[in-house]
Each structure stands twice: as structure tokens, then as C-alpha cells.
From TrEMBL:
PANTHER family: CAMP-BINDING PROTEIN 1-RELATED, GENERAL STRESS PROTEIN 16U
Pro residues bias spans: 194-212
Domain of life: Bacteria
Organism (species): Streptomyces gelaticus
Phylogenetic placement of the source organism: Bacteria, Bacillati, Actinomycetota, Actinomycetes, Kitasatosporales
InterPro entries: Stress/Tellurium_Resist (IPR051324), Tellurite_resistance_TerA (IPR017115), TerD (IPR003325)
Region (Disordered) location: 163-212
Pfam families registered for this protein in UniProt: TerD
Family: Belongs to the CAPAB/TerDEXZ family.
Protein name per its UniProtKB record: TerD domain-containing protein
Length: 426
């Protein structure tokens, strides 16, 4: 079946002691990237052409996935293959159970190809497979080649320049598998009929994407055991801090099947609002939220601005707000939280991920735990001024409002903000 676009799903079983796993893609011309912009991963989630996007992680029971979206028709003609890779942060792939990569038709969801990795030991990065052009059509080939030098070693092997390398290079060279006339264990992922062979001609010189600074591979994942981090230590001392919330519905219900009230029929029914309580060093307090059109301001107090209201939860959009770190000295504390405006009576059966991206530092992310109480408001992260540096504290705290008490007033009470509240609308 023809596929105009595909979804690459990297999956594994999540259990105590399992390292964090990330998917990535490298767009190659004759075995190398043209520039660092041809590397798509968590810190560089979109290719300049728009053909490849990193969609992020999702949970489903005891399983985790990290996904990439690839629009085959938009892949530049110079690109002859897209390498699909995985890296482990905080351990080796020998501790990752059930690792697989599968390719599905983005339109129908039909599985087109799959490869399960079963023999990993000391590897910290893997080339699981690759999409390659052959006679005008796209195919998938399983590879299964490991590296013991992590994402850094894999990336530099293809020509990526890495900022602040963490270890000496000891990469295993990438050896392209042979391509027989009728390759074994490959699946065609056509988006047009194969073209007849063209007469030999000199290949055009491929144009490279715009030059970029060396890529940063560092990131910070906050957990219950390690819930806080200094922005200054991550390089986030100036510029802006982008806060993103994205979500998905874990299950689809009809009627009143949810444990805590009306279930969510689909994404479009659910409206989550990202908000922030702030306290400035001069004592002023307030809230930034869509309710009452209190969107804030970036270059004047409160130095926090909320983007438009999003209902999709998509990883490349979702709900976003921005904090101006050039004025961080004027912020005493900022509490970032989320409320359910409509579409559900609880966060149960929702999965949400929070990412804080400093302009000049490593991204900070964490996932929310499963909600087991009838909560409509969740404290996400607390930013506290410590001598001019902002410390980010993972909260991930579900609160249950009392009858007649708004979610905003509930979170105010819990964190002692001491504000007066009046009803508001969007």
C-alpha cells in the first residue's frame, strides 16, 4: 500500500531500573549528514524541511514509546536514507526489555514493518533500522548495530559536531548493509510507483540545510528521587525559558465509564489550561492564565507570557508559556500548574509531559504520574529564586478542590499565595 507519510515508533517495557530511552533520526547523503541540521532528536525536534519531526514519549500501561513522524514526499531529493536510532540515558540497553521499532502508515495506522531487538548487552546507542530510497521508492531495512559510546558516539560517526563532548570517541564504524537486487527482510513503503532507471549522469551537489551551532545532547529528566535542578548549572541564565505541556488520552471511553466522572470521548473534547502563579521580589502577586484573558507580559511585569489556548495537546504545540530569564532577579517564585477547563472531571486516564527549555541550556522534562484521585488541578513545577538563580522543582501534585472551590483557589491555598479570587471566563 502506498504511504505518503509514516510514523516511526520506538517502544520498550518500562520497569524500575530501566534507563531513559530516546529515538532519533539522521538524514544522510552518501552515508553522512550535510550539516548538524540533518539530525532530529529531543533537542532538535524538527528538520528544516518539515519532513521529519520528533513527536516525543507516551506511556501505555507498562510500555513506553518515543515516536518520529516522517513525511516521505517531503524528504529532499538529495537525501538517500534516513537512519532510525535509539539511545539510552542512565544505563545500557541490556537493561531495556522489549525494545522494538515499527513503521506504520501515518494515515491508516497499518503496520508496514517491525524489528525487535533481543540481544543487547553493553550498548548505549543502537541503529535499529533505516528508510532508504531504491528505484524511486522508499523501503525499510532492519540494522541492529550497537554503540557503547552513546548518542554522542553514534552522532559523530555520521558527521555531527557535538557541543561539550562527554567522553572520548570510541565509536564502532557504521557499515552499510549490502543491498541485493531483491533484499531480504525489507518492506516497501512506496509513495509513488518505481521510476524506470535513468541514464547515468553526474549527481548534483546536495544543498545543505542552514548552518547551525554544534548540537547539545545534554538533558535533565526530573524524577521523584531527583526532583530539582538549578537553571544556572544547566546554562539557563539569560534569554527565555519556554514551558510546554502536552498530553494524550490513555484510553477512549463512551458514556460514564471513567472512575471519576464523565470520560473524554476524544482529544477535541478536552481543554486543559496551563497557568502560572507568580510573586515578584517587590511583593506583587498575580496569575497568568487564559481565564479572564490574563496572558501576562514578557518584557514588563510579570515577565511571564502565556501563548494562545490549545486543545490538541500535540507535542509540537500543546500549551506553552514563556518566562523572561533576563528579569529572573525580579521573580521571587513562580508556580506552574494546569487545570481542566472542560471535557473531563479528572486527570485520570490522561498522560502529560512537561518540558522546560531554556534558550541557552539543556531541556528539563518530566512526566506526570498516574492520577488516582478526582483531581481537576495539578501543580507542575515551582521556580524559586535562590540568590539570583532559579531552581526548578518538580511538583507533579494532583489536588482535589472542595465543593464550590475553584481549582485556582485550591492551588493558592496549597502553596500559600494569599490572593483574592473572583469568577472569570475565557
Amino acid at each position: 500500500m502506498a504511504a505518503q507519510a509514516v510514523r516511526v515508533e520506538l517502544g520498550w517495557r518500562n520497569s524500575p531500573g530501566t534507563p531513559d530511552v530516546d529515538g532519533s533520526a539522521l538524514l544522510l547523503v552518501s552515508g553522512k549528514v550535510r550539516s548538524d541540521a540533518d539530525f532530529v532528536f529531543y533537542n532538535q525536534p524538527s528538520h528544516a524541511s518539515g519532513a521529519v519531526r520528533h513527536e516525543g514519549k507516551r506511556t501505555a500501561g507498562d510500555g513506553m514509546t518515543d515516536s518520529l513522524a516522517i513525511e516521505l514526499a517531503r524528504v529532499e531529493p538529495a537525501i538517500d536514507r534516513v537512519v532510525l536510532a535509539a539511545s539510552a540515558d542512565g544505563g545500557t540497553f541490556g537493561r531495556v526489555a522489549g525494545l522494538y521499532v515499527r513503521i506504520t502508515d501515518a494515515a491508516s495506522g497499518r503496520e508496514l514493518a517491525r524489528f525487535d531487538s533481543t540481544d543487547a548487552t553493553i550498548e548505549t546507542a543502537f541503529i535499529l533500522g533505516e528508510l532508504y530510497r531504491r528505484q524511486g521508492a522508499w523501503k525499510f531495512r532492519a540494522v541492529g548495530q550497537g554503540y557503547d559510546t552513546g548518542l554522542e558516539g553514534l552522532a559523530t560517526d555520521f558527521g555531527i559536531s557535538v557541543d561539550e563532548p562527554q567522553q572520548p570517541q570510541r565509536t564502532q564504524p557504521y557499515r552499510r548493509p549490502p543491498t541485493p537486487q531483491q533484499p531480504q527482510n525489507t518492506t516497501r513503503v512506496d509513495h509513488r510507483p518505481p521510476a524506470p532507471p535513468a541514464p547515468p549522469m553526474a549527481p548534483p551537489v546536495p544543498s545543505a540545510p542552514p548552518a547551525t551551532a554544534p548540537v547539545r545532547l545534554s538533558k535533565v529528566t526530573l524524577t521523584k528521587d531527583a526532583p530539582s535542578v538549578s537553571l544556572a548549572k544547566q546554562g539557563g541564565t539569560s534569554g527565555v525559558l519556554r514551558v510546554n505541556l502536552n498530553w494524550q488520552v490513555r484510553k477512549q471511553f463512551k458514556g460514564w465509564g471513567s472512575k471519576f466522572g464523565r470520560a473524554v470521548a476524544n482529544h477535541s473534547d478536552l481543554d486543559l489550561d496551563l497557568c502560572a502563579l507568580y510573586e515578584l521580589t517587590d511583593g506583587r502577586k498575580g496569575v497568568v492564565q487564559a481565564l479572564g484573558n490574563a496572558f501576562g507580559a514578557l518584557h514588563q511585569p510579570p515577565y511571564i507570557h502565556l501563548d494562545g489556548d490549545d486543545r490538541t495537546g500535540a507535542v509540537d504545540t500543546g500549551e506553552n508559556l514563556t518566562v523572561n530569564l533576563d528579569h529572573k532577579g525580579k521573580l521571587r517564585r513562580v508556580l506552574i500548574f494546569v487545570t481542566i477547563y472542560e471535557g473531563a472531571r479528572s486527570f485520570a486516564d490522561l498522560h502529560a509531559t512537561v518540558t522546560l527549555q531554556p534558550q541557552h541550556g539543556a531541556p528539563i522534562d518530566f512526566s506526570l504520574d498516574e492520577c488516582t484521585v478526582p483531581s481537576t488541578v495539578c501543580a507542575l513545577a515551582l521556580l524559586t529564586n535562590n540568590g539570583g538563580d532559579l531552581t526548578v522543582q518538580r511538583e507533579a501534585r494532583y489536588l482535589v478542590p472542595e465543593r464550590g472551590v475553584s481549582p485556582q483557589r485550591t492551588i493558592d491555598y496549597a502553596y500559600g499565595w494569599g490572593m483574592n479570587w473572583t469568577p472569570g471566563r475565557k
